[in-house]
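SAMPLE LOG
Freezer: B-3
Tube label: C17
Construct: single chain, 212 aa
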Amino acid sequence: MTTHFTDDEIDALGERLRRGITHTDRTRYGSHRRVLNVLRSDLEAELRAFFPNAEAGSRTKRVETVAAKLQRRPDLPLSQVTDLAGCRIIVSGKAEQEAVVTRLLATYDVQQVDDKSDRPKFGYRAVHFDIRYRGQLMEIQVQTRNQHLWQMVSEMAAGYDISIKYGGGLQEVNRALQDLSELAWRCDLEGTELPDADIDQARDVITSAHSG
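STRUCTURE (predicted):
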């Protein structure tokens, strides 16, 4: 299956979305997103079959999220945005993560691998694959359970201030997330799970920091 639009048409749509979301372009992106939804659903089903002991999920980006990304990256053509549609695999620990990474490299048309598991970006840890799947660029994220637990706390913080995902936000919130990310990394090395008490403490810092 291919997209309804050529790369040139998709890039032209991206340029318009950078300037603002019109009703016409929201509809056009919706048409493209429906095709992406079929692809990511099929990819998710394949991943579930390959890794029955892992947790798998998928999503496609909303037009508002896409427009915001294009505004942050004025040099990025929409046709080259790899995470418009993607899947996530969550495994129990580092050994399982490495096994999944090896299988993905052998199975898919991998364009790029970005290993943030030991080199986090603003505390975020995962292994990202950009793949070409039936002609469409897509993303697969592979996370340990601890990396995913950290991300859930980060998403809570982003609900107050989205800039936390890009190094912005309140200093005390950033520090709490960085500390929790380091703890998640150490727990993965030890084969243990992030303690609930530390997760709750980070959540309390976030809530308190934004309560004023």
